[in-house]
Predict the structure.
Amino acid sequence: MLLVQNVLLKFGEVRALDDVSLELKKGEILGIIGPNGSGKTSLFNVINGIYKPQSGKILLELNGEKIDITNTPTWKRTRYGISRTFQNIKLFGTLPVVDNIILGRNIYSDSGVIGVLKSVFSMDKKDYINNRKKAEEIIDFLDLKPYRYSLARDLSLGVRKKVELARALAQDPKILLLDEPTSGLTYEEKSEFLYYVKEINEKLGISIIVIEHDVKVVSSIANRVIAMSFGKIISEGTPQNVFQDPKVIETYIGTERI
């Protein structure tokens, strides 16, 4: 689905990503672990176009062909099927849940977010009807019905994380990038969120890359794991093999949370 080849990303003399290569296979969940500053979020920012690497390539499978998206703008990558969530939730606090989800459809509007916002407040418009139908399907899938008309600012952290996930799904992704999705959640909220991540992967067929600090979270959902340190990949394989790798143990010795 996705191929990252020998990517170098520098900020001054600091190498945020140093010759990083990885692949995401169709239908898998790939976990990325590493301490703060190891390059995990920088990798996401390169994949979805926020940062442009100094060297290396990002290749995406599209209609059976590999295309080079290294210099493709973020909005176009989203149309190609790459969606993401962020560490810091980016919702419109004064809008209800359903409208926050509808705003994820902005990539299909020639006028972007402004156009979708206008459709939200014009109930008779065809765009709103079609977008609302998609939003309702996602609300049912993620069991957000009790919060449909609640303002985002009034929701708990766990529900807001689900709403941001719902908005990413509204973009009809083929690849979903989840940046520390369970950070700050209770044990029960984590369990529920991970249930939906598995459902998205298995029932919707979406390939997923997830950045996580919690080793137990990664072990429970990932098919493969990549460990990063100082901008480099230091280990790759099954969760069991990576967590038993001496390099990983040495890097994270004495910690349960990576």
About this structure: The mean pLDDT is 90. The chain has two domains: 1-81+173-258, 90-172. Residues 60 and 212 are 23 Å apart (CA to CA).
